User: What shape does this take?
Amino acid sequence: MESISIKNLKFSYTTLISSESPKKQKKIFKILDGVNLSLEKGDILCITGKSGEGKSTFLRIIAGLEKAASGEMSLFGEPVKQNEWTALYMAQKGVGFVFQNDALLSDLTIKDNIAIPLHYHKMGTEEEIEQKAQRALMLMLASGFANEFPYSLSLGMRKRIAIARAWALDARILLLDEPTAGLDKNSRINLLSLVDNLRELYKTTIIMVVSDLQVAHELNSKISFLVDKKLTPPMYFNEIKDHESSHIRAMIR
Assistant: This one.
């Protein structure tokens, strides 16, 4: 079953440029220009490319945190209308977003960090929300940290908590922005193993922005490169070295 389909997505921003003329001049910068993507339920896709190419912006657009200039998206076979493509609507449709910096609230316990969005979206009674939070923590092997505060946890554990918080909202699609950034080898392997469990156990579709292609290799996931404002067709790690584009082949050197 197709979980997400994106067609001809475009995104740009306009900025004012200095000029001696009294009239303000504007310049349009294209970031994404005709991006297409199609994933089945339970797929994992890593998106990579040079810094500043728009990888994180692409995730933010899917999540409704940025507004596309044009393009179409369907979730589980249902089209998303342009006026509905908002962060609230996408969260309600089962799209979870995990920020690179984890975005945990420092003055709340881990359990309360997970519960807050559940309360906001009115996803059950107090008892049901408690159960959802505990289940998410259990999946991330973090149950023992429920009453701790974010500042007392390692970076790797905070990232696991951030994933647990997004998944607790009944997320069927998870968008992870550089989830392994800053982690040592063991922490990265542990986190990726838990992410893969979500896919195996719940058929969660996962889209990850990564800088390190080793992440895709360890997950045995497909990779798409954001090049010239478009996504390449997905490929496996061992296919990169034979790719027709020297630019893409150079990514693994």
About this structure: The longest strand covers residues 2-17. The first helix runs from residue 55 to 62. The chain has one domain: 2-16+26-252.
